[in-house]
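Usage

Read records sequentially. Each one opens with the input sequence:
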Amino acid sequence: MIERIFRAEHGRAVSVLVRVFGDVDVAEEAVQDAFAEAVRRWPADGAPPSPAGWIITTARNKAIDRLRREAAREGKQAQAVLVNVAEPVEEGVVRDERLRLMFTCCHPALALQARVALTLRLLGGLTTAEIARAFLVPEATMAQRLVRAKGKIRDAGIPYRVPEEADLPGRLTGVLAVIYLVFNQGYGGRDELAAEAIRLGRVLAELMADEPEVLGLLALMLLIESRKGARMRDGELILLADQDRALWDRGLVDEGQALVRRCLRRNRPGPYQIQAAINAVHGDAARAEETDWRQILQLYDQLMGVAPSPVAALNRAVAVAEVEGVEEALAVVDGLDLGHYYLFHAIRADLLRRLGRREAAAAAYDEAIGRTENEAELAFLRRRRVSVCG
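and closes with the structure output:
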C-alpha cells in the first residue's frame, strides 16, 4: 500500500513543499523522510485516514526541524522563521502545485535530459538508480545530472510557477514532449516508464482539461499502450498488421477513442491529437484488412500541414503504400534524409521486399540491423532478412 501511495502522492507532496519552502532539495528530502517514517509506523499503527495529508504534514514538520537545526548551527536565526512567513496567493491559469512543479522541471533553460530526469525524480518518485537504468547511464552520471539540474533551478532563479497565459502554449509543448519521451523509452521495453508517462499524462489532463493537446497526448499513449499485449511473441516484435487484436486492451482503446472524440469537438487540431486520431482509426478495425487507410492518409496529410517532419513523412509513406501503391511510397521514402534512423531502413526494406527487389531489400535490412540495439527489433529484422534472402 505504501508503494502505491508513494507513486500516487510523491509528486503532490514535493510540489506542496517546494511551494512552502522554495527549495527543491529541502522539499525532496523532507518527503523522503516522511515516507521512511510511514514505512516504520504504518505497519504497526495502521494507515491514517488521509495518507496524503499525513505525508505532507509530516514532511513539512521534518523540513521545519531541519531548517531550525541548521539555523541554530550556523547562527542564522532568520532561516528559522522563514517557514512562518505567510505564503502569497498567486493567481494563475491553474492552482495545483503539481502543475507548477511540472513546468519547473520542464523549463527550457534546462537541458532536455535534465528535464526528463527531474520529472521522473520529483513528480514520479523514481530513484536515481531506476532512472539511470531506464536511460542506460551509470547511476553516478544520473546523480550528477540531477544535482546540476536542481542547482540550475536555484542559481538561475527559475520560477516555481505556471507560465502566464500568453506564454503557456509554447511552454506546454515542452512539457508534453518530455512526457512523450518518457513514454517512448518505456514503450521500447521499460514498462515502468510507460506506466509513469501515462500517469503523468492523466495528472496533466486532470489539471488542464481544456487543453486539447494534453488530451491528445494522453489518448495517443493509451491507444499505443492498448496494443502492448499483442506486440511481442516469444521475445520477437509483431507488426501491427500481424497482431492478434483480441489481445488488445479494449478498455484502453475505448478510453483513448473517447478522448479523441473530445478533441474533435474542440476543433483545435494539433500534432498529438492527429497522431491519436490515426491510432484510433487502427483501433476501429477488427481485422488489419478492414483498416481505413484513406482516412489515415488524410490524417497524415493534416499532420504534415500542422507539424511537418521527416519522421511524420516516413510514417505517412506506410499509408501511401496502402492507398497509392508501393512504388509511390518508395519514392517518398527515398526522398527523405533519415539515413541515421533504423526505421527508415526497415520501412524501405519492406517496400523493396514487396516490390520483389530482394538484393536491395536485404541490403536495407542490414542497414536497419546495424542501427538498433533493441533485441526484439533485431530478432524481427533478422528473421525478415532471412525470409527475403532464403
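Summary fields computed downstream for this record:
- The two ends are 54 Å apart (CA to CA).
- The first strand starts at residue 232 and ends at 233.
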